[in-house]
């Protein structure tokens, strides 16, 4: 049975996330002064792509963590499908993360002693991806490292493994926190192509954080922190 706050139906309306005068605690003052996000009224729609840029310390990761529900220290309202997230229980958030929102963390959060495959498959996927783990790894150039402990992989290799893990999850909105920071241009293009395919196939939304503009990618809305 789904938790009381959420209503998971295959034919339900497209997912919507609303930020109503959202202000994190503590407030990043530099970001607040020039922000198009904090203290504003914004809507994230499933199927749209959003880019959030800004230098370090402006709250890009904070924004994604608030949407994902692992940080709840804020003023204002965060509405998910017209429901106030302040009323969500831990069970509600777990239910939502297993079906509607996936996140690639900036710090990746891989277990160093587990193999890359074990990290990818640690949580039972609720989504039957069109591409297997092996195929995604092959396309991203890391197939030969699937059985290696993540602790011995380079940062770029770990980043690509984390992307595979995120794309293996069930989601309607995908949150990516600086997912290309350790990739060269060629590997970034490969990763973005794979991301675009999954977004289009699921008709899913994207919130991408980056230190800089990503002009080569198709983005619907851009915000600067």
Question: How does this model look, in words?
Answer:
The structure is a single chain. The chain has 225 residues and is an alpha/beta fold. Helix content is 31%, strand content 21%. It contains seven helices and nine strands. It has helices at 29-34, 60-68, 90-99, 116-121, 133-139, 155-167, 185-202, and strands at 16-24, 41-45, 49-53, 74-80, 83-84, 101-104, 173-177, 205-210, 221-224. Strands 6-7-8-3-9 form a five-stranded parallel sheet, sandwiched between helices. The mean pLDDT is 88.
Q: What does the secondary structure layout of this molecule look like, with pairings?
A:
Blueprint: E1 16-24, H1 29-34, E2 41-45, E3 49-53, H2 60-68, E4 74-80, E5 83-84, H3 90-99, E6 101-104, H4 116-121, H5 133-139, H6 155-167, E7 173-177, H7 185-202, E8 205-210, E9 221-224
Parallel strand pairs: 3-8, 3-9, 6-7, 7-8
Antiparallel strand pairs: 1-2, 1-4, 4-5
Number of discrete helical segments? 7
Shape: globular
Question: What is the average of the pLDDT values?
Answer: 88
Q: What is the distance, rounded to the nearest whole angstrom, between the alpha carbons of the first and last residues?
A: 39 Å
Uncertain segments are none
Please trace the helix and strand order, writing H or E for each element.
EHEEHEEHEHHHEHEE
Helix content: 25-40%
> C-alpha Rg, in Å?
17 Å
Q: What is the oligomeric state here?
A: single chain
Largest beta sheet: what is the strand line-up?
6-7-8-3-9
Major beta sheet summary: 5 strands, parallel
